[in-house]
Amino acid sequence: MADAQILAANDSGAYLLRLCGDVRLTLSTTLDDYLEAMVADPEFQTLIVDLCEAENLDSTTLGMLAKVALRVEADFHVQPDLYSCKAGISRLIRSMGFSQLFHIHEELCCAEGETSELAAQNSDEKQMHAKVLDAHRTLMSLSTENEARFKDLLNALELVQ
Q1: Which of 50, 135, 141, 152 has a beta carbon 3.0–4.6 Å from 109's, enabling a disulfide?
Q2: pTM of the full predicted structure?
Q3: Is the pLDDT of residue 93 over 70?
Q4: Which one of the record's GO molecular function terms can you name (predicted)?
């Protein structure tokens, strides 16, 4: 699998987030920090998530994307766009209930612009644990299927606290 990268751009409040390679827990702090700053931007207008170069997304990453989509809808009354070019990624995001969170496009993302790679942020184990719990709780809130899928994992993680 290719190394993970998170590329981002902002053009007057129109945000582009491009996830590349095998995006996992190790980039969760980087992703979460960027998404928090994005929704705090008073100029925020829209979000496009491009997964066309993603090879894999772990459940923590999926939970963070779900969380930001819910927040964008609640705070800005906008449903983000999500582009997915690979059948496996498309099946994954649909199985998680992302159709209710994003306008899903199974085609190449046409968003242009200069992106820059987000620098990997470190976090301590306690912060990482909290992010993983929050991400999985978000996924579980989307459907009964997700609740069943992640219940045992969440219970195990809560015991470690």
Answers
A1: 50
A2: 0.93
A3: yes
A4: anti-sigma factor antagonist activity
